[in-house]
Amino acid sequence: QSVLTQPPSVSGAPGQSVTISCSGGSSNIGTDYDVNWYQQLPGTVPKLLIHANTRPSGVPDRFSASRSGTSASLAILGLRPEDEADYYCQSYDYNLIGSVVFGGGTKLTVL
Amino acid sequence: EVQIVQSGAEVRKPGTTVKISCKLSGFTFIDYYIHWVRQAPGKGLDWVGLVDPEDGQAKYPQQWRDRVTITADTSEETVYMELTSLTSQDTAVYYCAVIHRALVSWGQGTMVIVS
């Protein structure tokens, strides 16, 4: 059981947009800790996609993130076949200072 | 640039212990917590614990506290994770990572097979 809750799967056709939600609580996302988003392609190491609503160099601006209260979300505009991957949200939790908490992951299928 | 190189795959029998390592470079070793994250086949990411290389203090979530020990060797800039009483459920890829604000870097992962 993951600390953060994500939908197990989302899907969309090429060119469409999807949003992946990440629900936490008052001890993690709700405390204003950073929320990171990772993309994991099959057989690869998770790649940082978004840090605290900003994209590292090289990440397309089709990816964006937002947060409100105890939840966060990742939006992907103009879906492309290569976006098909697993996506994870990650934050921190003040119940154990320094600890990292993850969402259970969302499988994005590009139809 | 942060670089993390993990030790190679391990195969263990149930009930035994495994100890894997990660060598870190490209940053001041004592400046950041070092985390271990597990990913079982077809499953999500599970935080195993962290070590503060500055003082050697480790922290673990409740479900791991009885079986995992994370240590840091500052002279070698290497972090170790030891997992005891292995079962088939521990078959997974174990990642070593720096996760600190915008500084995020993961090792290549170490496959541990318990069979």
Instruction: List unreliable stretches of 5+ residues of chain B.
Output: none
Structural class of chain B: mainly beta
Largest interface comes to: A-B, 24 and 20 residues
Tell how many strands the DSSP assignment of chain A holds. Answer: 9
Described by the principal axes of the CA atoms, the overall outline of chain B is: globular
The low-pLDDT segments of chain A are none
Number of helices of chain B: 0
- The count of DSSP E runs of length 2 or more, i.e. the number of strands of chain B, is 11
How large is the count of helical segments of chain A? 0
What is the makeup of the main sheet of chain B?
7 strands, mixed
Characterize the main sheet of chain A. 6 strands, mixed
Global outline of chain A: globular
Cα-atom Rg of chain B, whole angstroms? 13 Å
Mean pLDDT of chain A: 95
Strand proportion of chain B, as a percent range, falls in over 45%
Integer average pLDDT of chain B: 96
- Overall structural class of chain A, as computed from helix and strand content, comes to mainly beta
Query: What letter string, H or E per element, gives the SSE order of chain A?
Result: EEEEEEEEE
Task: Describe the protein.
The complex is a heterodimer of chains A (111) and B (115). With 111 residues, chain A is mostly beta strands. Helix content of chain A is 0%, strand content 45%. The mean pLDDT of chain A is 95. Chain B is mainly beta and 115 residues long. Helices cover 0% and strands 52% of the residues of chain B. Chain B contains no helices and 11 strands. In chain B, 37% of the residues are buried. The interface between A and B is medium-sized, with 24 and 20 residues.
